[in-house]
Amino acid sequence: MQHEFPHAVIREAYNLSQHRCQCTDPNCPHKSDDEGRCYQILRWPAHGDNTPDGWHAVHIDPAGPGTISNCQVLCSRCYQYALATGRLTKPAVERRRPVLVPATAGA
Ligand SMILES: [Zn+2]
Ligand SMILES: [Zn+2]
Questions:
Q1: How confident is the model at residue 3 (pLDDT cuts 50, 70, 90)?
Q2: 88 CA from centroid of ligand 2 (Å)
Q3: Mean pLDDT over residues 14-37, rounded?
Q4: Rounded distance, CA 54 to CA 70, Å?
């Protein structure tokens, strides 16, 4: 039986994800950037939805606690893929990715 995530943990995981799918499974067909991340933008109100911008908070260790260190957020497509393959064992909180600011051209 899994330990449910408290609402605050889900909220924190969502914030830490920078509102992006945290799937980094190299086999997942949904990756959308050159680092192999899915990076699908997730809307908070869509939590639990199975729409393209829906998402789910999942346990990294299925038998682990309902804490932030055991929580990652996946978009609905990656969630379905992970469920289908049993791949729910990726790091929850990835390194913070610096926000890339386009260089301003000219002076
Ligand atoms: Zn995804
Ligand atoms: Zn994925």
A1: confident
A2: 11
A3: 83
A4: 20
